[in-house]
Amino acid sequence: MLLTRFVLVALLSISLFSNTPQSSAQAQTAQPRNEPASNLPAHEDDPLADSAPVVTHHQITVNGKPLKYTATAGRLLLKPEGGPVEAAIFFTAYTLDGEDGHLRPLTFVFNGGPGTGTAWLHMGAVGPKKIKLEPDGGVPAPPYVTVENPDTLLDRTDLVFIDAPGTGFSRVRPDLAKKFYNVPGDADAFYRFIRQYLTRYQRWHSPLFLFGESYGTTRAAALVNHLTDNYIPVNGVALLSVGLDFTTLQAGNMNDLPVELIIPSYTMIAAYHKKIAPELTADMDATIKKVEQWCALDYAQALAMGNALPQEKRKQIIQQLAAYTGLKPELIDEYDLRIEPQIFMHNLLKDRKLEVGRVDGRFA
Q1: Which pLDDT does position 45 carry in this prediction?
Q2: Best CA proximity match to 38, nearest among 13, 14, 17, 11
């Protein structure tokens, strides 16, 4: 969890389009306006006003092959038939040039939060360009620049990055906030956006995929049902940093499952920082399998027994947990065998006066 929870995210203050060329061309069915995408959303005094998309053309190299593509930044308005606009959903789409858009796969991508726009997956993971980071993965000082992303999915599928209602450049009519800021309302907004996008850009024949991250995985689960119930078949769903079963994420007095499941991640992080015995790091695959089995059996049983756990058995669990996490036995005893992320992050490298990274446990 700690190793791959998110892409580094100190990027929210960066304009998504600060390095976008300003040439314009025609979208498939909409006439773009010849202005830079940095001016979006148009009509800030009326955030629900209609506006033409901005379309630009680019080229990157992926796996030694040039990819020419079209970027479309704009908004689609959600409104009932004959009624006023309820929301304006912002999107950035990347479509590969020279391909049959009717048959090429199309993936709708969104971050979680749930109160976040889709900047992280867009500019840090699967978009055609990403923010340039330091060699060690750190965020540089401004000015920020973008570079080609060799890990983009654009060579396999067209991409549409969507800002959820009320996040990023998407806007919701103030009196309708309660309609959108809930699980079914959020899923319905994405359904309405996708249906409209497929129509406007003539993509009904394209194989359709969803890519959700964190709460976006929760959204994807609700959305895929909503789409299929409304006769829009989905070919596949990709889930990153899965948040489908919240009992695996939120520990409590009656729920020890999260602290059991995260121990193997602690082991990986502790091994990276050379905080566990060398014999455990010689074959990490074997070690992790061993740790997972121990967590599912001995550790889970010990936690379930609570105060009924025999003192000798408690000492054994503490020593084993210390060996697998790199933490001091006294600390584990103090926290009653239950080591939540903040405790681990603060104490693993305490002797070096360092804190383990929450986003990526390799950083300190």
Answers
A1: 61
A2: 17
